[in-house]
Amino acid sequence: MSPLWVIRILFLSLCTLAGYEVSQVRPEWIESGPLGLVIGFGVGGLCVAIDEMLKGFSLRAFSAATFGLFLGTVVAGLIDRSGLFADADDPQRRVIRLALFLSFGYLGMVLAMRSNKEDFSLIIPYVRFAPQTKPEFLLLLDTSVIIDGRIADLLEANFIEGTLVVPRFVLRELQQIADSNDPVIRARGRRGLEMLTRLRQNKRNEVKIHDADVAGETEVDAKLVRLARALGAKLYTNDYNLGKVAELQSVPCVNLNELANALKPVILPGEVFSLRVVREGKDKGQGVGYLNDGTMVVVNNAQNLIGQQVNVKVLSLLQTGAGVIIFADLKSPPAA
């Protein structure tokens, strides 16, 4: 049971006891003790239900709504005091005032919640609040990049820095993957949880678990894009489609697969390097080896050199959907 539900149960218990106590102190309000218990429990349950409906309603949204309500009330008060309704009698005046305050209060709240922080410069046009501390760089991680694990290597090598943000819904997705009946999928999920532990052990970069959910979205990818925009964070992923969606919505995104491809060494025809032949090739007489980044090298006349280190000379490169295949010839006899 989560700590939040412990607080809710305690709150319901106190409301129920309060309802009973009111029935004992003020019997003219509540006739009997059991009725007081029911009323107290009902009031507490209503508060918990409202709390559940407001899940995902952030502090920024609440502040914006309060500010909008204040502005709407000010505008309604100015209109009420303008004298436009001076000729109305008291009953009509009360109805008009109620309509004004409700309408402008609602409009102010909606407009404030739809706006962003730059829109408030229209209200205070010559004031800019400059940060007094070093800006915080937020790196929002999705499920694929956590499972992949290369983000941990980059952080430990000081190639990137910032505060890592892992949303609670990503943690839930990782746990579901780790609990899968498929052993391959389960292994991926457990690797992701192990990588999270490794990230938390890195003292140079703080890891924050973001508890707020994204209201109105059910897909994890859509939640990630909206959360990255709301936090001003850079999204890290291995998902090509998620990267394109983020790019279309002007959300900064880093795809580690694209980064890895950009960092691969450039091999040109005529270049000579050392290679270990690990298996036979598809055609007769060919041997196959691999570079450190996984690029396959097909070597002519190397079938009988499997398991040996040889020097090869690049003949040509073939670009495929899976990457680059290098074709090479033996440069010299196998190394001792």
Find the CATH topology of the largest domain: Rossmann fold
Helix content: 40-55%
> Would you identify the regions where 5 or more consecutive residues have pLDDT less than 50?
124-132
SSE series: HHHHEHHEHHEHEHEHEEEEE
- Rg from alpha-carbon coordinates: 32 Å
SS-based class: alpha/beta
The number of helical segments is: 11
- Major β-sheet strand ordering: 3-2-1-4-5
Q: Would you state the CATH class of the largest domain?
A: Alpha Beta
Beta-strand percent range: 15-25%
CATH hierarchy: architecture of the largest domain: 3-Layer(aba) Sandwich
Task: Furnish the topology, listing elements before pairings.
Elements: H1 3-25, H2 33-53, H3 59-80, H4 90-114, E1 138-141, H5 143-148, H6 150-156, E2 163-167, H7 168-178, H8 183-201, E3 207-210, H9 220-231, E4 234-237, H10 240-248, E5 253-255, H11 256-262, E6 272-280, E7 287-290, E8 296-299, E9 309-320, E10 323-330
Parallel strand pairs: 1-2, 1-4, 2-3, 4-5, 8-10
Antiparallel strand pairs: 6-7, 6-9, 7-8, 9-10
Helix pairs in contact: 1-2, 3-4, 7-8
